[in-house]
Design goal:
Elements (H helix, E strand, L loop, with lengths): L5 E11 L3 E6 L4 E6 L1 H5 L9 E6 L6 E8 L9 H18 L2
Length: 99
């Protein structure tokens, strides 16, 4: 009988060689994770700080398989790059519409 996987979420802390990652779970536990075959096939790139969904075996809670890259969770304030982008767009609108 096949056991069910435990689904957890976490943040990528370090990128290791061989498509391995050190991921910190929401409960501050660190696990060693690798990407699943479909993500490898589709060339999904993961970097430090990415939010991921993983599957863990109930027998070994120190290893996991990354199955999904989730959108980043941001705080109550917008992302700084988005603020800079909005400022640039506002400057362009002023320049083209001021004449």
């Amino acid at each position: 009988m096949k056991e069910e996987h435990i689904e957890v979420e976490g943040n990528v802390q370090t990128v290791l060689p061989g498509t391995m990652f050190r991921v910190e779970l929401d409960n501050k536990h660190l696990v060693l994770a690798t990407i699943c075959g479909k993500m490898r096939k589709r060339w999904v790139r993961l970097t430090v700080g990415d939010r991921v969904k993983m599957e863990m075996s109930p027998y070994d809670l120190n290893k996991a398989r990354i199955v999904w890259r989730l959108p980043a969770r941001h705080g109550p304030f917008p992302v700084p790059s988005l603020i800079a982008y909005n400022r640039r767009m506002a400057m362009r609108r002023r320049k083209c519409c001021s004449s």
